[in-house]
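Example record

The entry below shows one chain as it appears in the dataset: sequence first, then structure tokens.
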Amino acid sequence: MERITERQIARLVDFVEARISDTDSRESEAERRAASALRLIVHKQVAAIRYYRSAPPKAVSTAELHATASWNLLVGVAQIWRDHLGFPEDAAIETFEFKDDHPLLPTGVNDG
């Protein structure tokens, strides 16, 4: 998470939020709910990332795992719009891939 800058976080969040239409402008209830759910997901992930950055030293290791997973999820949400002209490729970088058989462990970490 240390290699992800505040500028990258801000660019990715701005990009994703700009893609999520204003819930009031949606025609159907399902579209309004979907937009609200995406907005909630984005805000929760950003909160986890920001918490990690300000966490007290004894909580950093636990917070880092949550922040990393949150960042990767935020990148995944942004990739919905990967073909968009303004996609922030340099900001949408995953911190690491997770193991298929142990989704809470990054690849390269011994789970034994």
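Notes for this example: The chain is about 55% helix and 0% strand. Helices lie at 6-19, 29-54, 60-78.
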